[in-house]
Amino acid sequence: MGKKRSSSKIFSEHEIKQLESNPNVLHVTDKSITYAPAFKLAAVKAYISGQTPMEIFRNAGFNVDVIGHDKPHQCLKRWRNTYSALGENGLLEEQRGKGSTGRPTGERLSMEEKLKRAEARIKLLEAENDFLKKLDALETQKMQRKH
């Protein structure tokens, strides 16, 4: 999930169109494929019943020369881990960001922290204003020299 791809495969426009035409694909960028949740679940079940990752992907209409020969094995390993940890729902629901606290929202900041941020923003805006005033003065000077 947070791992870097071992192959630095970049998909061409033609390959992206080919992959997007597969009903087992939700979305494709030049670097990644988002698989349909139902396909992930079906793939794990097919693996449990004895099919190899390569067979599963080929039977699902994937060209392994396009996606990469290591991709079926990598995906099945990741999906099996998700399946054993979270069950079917783990594959059917989007997991990215789940349980993440993310950035603190306004309610969680202390008044002191809010004040510090507001003061920093005021300083930034004042610096922007000063810069714009200087720029305006320079442009005015330049125009006066031309006349």
Automatic annotation (TrEMBL):
Domain of life: Bacteria
Any Pfam family: HTH_Tnp_2
Region Disordered: start-end pairs: 90-112
Listed InterPro entries: Homeodomain-like_sf, HTH_Tnp, IS150/IS1296_orfA-like
Name used for this protein in its record: Putative transposase for insertion sequence element IS1353
Organism per entry: Brevibacillus borstelensis AK1
